[in-house]
# Entry
Amino acid sequence: MATGAIDTAQVPKALLTGAYTAARRIQMQSFAIDGAAEQIYVLQCIPAGVRLADEPKALPFEERLTAGDLVCTRMDFQGNVLDRMYLRGFGHGTALSVVARAGGGVDLWLDGLARQESYGSEGQAVATTAYVPSTDTAVDCVDTSRVRTWAPSGPQQHYVPAVDTLNRRIAVATRTAAPADRNSYVYKYRLYDFDAAARGKWIPLHTVTRTQAYPQGVATFGDHLYTWTGRGDEDDAWVTTVDWRTGEPVQATLIRREPSDATREPEGIALWTPADGEAAKTRLCLGFGVSHVLPDGTRSDRALTVKYLAGPAEPDLTVHVLVDWTDITLATDVTSGFASRPPRARLISLAGNRLLQLSGMVKCSFADSTSDGIIGTLPAALWPSFDLDVACPRNARTGLAVCRVAVNVNGTLYAEGGTPVNTIDWIQLDNFSTAWA
# Structure
């Protein structure tokens, strides 16, 4: 990991879980964090049935989607909706930033001047407007009295801006053409001085080109670009860190579903800058649209979940229980060594690492040197993505007092080393603790 980057390999912590905006049926597109006010701004397409004051009728969702009509909802960190703002003709809302205004309040930075495309719309410019709550009126992207737009790289199919307020930089992703398929989006990322850009002087400081699948957001902090990709139907949410100075990736992390996670889709990535402005406390936040399939086969309302990766000034030595102690299903002829404490397993995170831990004791009789002794099966939520093993105490015989206890990707827990002359009669599992992924 390059110096100054936020470590993306740590276990994400929850900021907001399963919250809802007023547009409950619509997936979040992106979000932004106002760290000083402890508020979250959430961007979505305007849902079906909304009629704004100057519209003759309520419009269907498909028309809102292709027109680039968005709603930005302001929430507190507890998930309470504070107010909202309607934005007409802006774009897809792939990324959102909020920047404090000198006189109070914030400006929104997002894509603007929507262009219809095959699955909605995309903004053809960088746009900014003051956040002004409204109940039935909208700001139109073409209203130059309220909205400023720039296309610093000329005509493009898509512009995606992201602001680093602490270092006064703005990253802009652009795409010149539609991808051959959704696994091969080619974006050019340029980094600019934010204050100069806001005055209309867009001079690139760095330029990086990346090919990626299913882009879901972009953020920039200091010397590093962060991209967020993935789909909702697979466990493929990747955050990739790229060094602006070299253009090379320095870290790529799969943010796996936690066992307790519902169906989720990566939606938005943003910085959480502390109120005191200390760079080392800046957090990287990852957004997910969350839903599940109802008994009738339809999809539930779309909640939003935001998790964060801590900055280097926040060492976390607290034990976080991800899956609490759960009984291990023992194999035939294997029994618990303690009547009051059956063999169990759990998953925790500590100092940014996930650890699989076992507890208890088993009685067995493993004497077949041609096969491993099957202890049992772990709960499905604890099955690892690769085989794990730990040396555990066993009955002492012929100078041996430990055996290797392993678990495979199917959750089978087994012991190695039993032979006819060196039978394993019991195994203590309490010291089984190893990195899990």
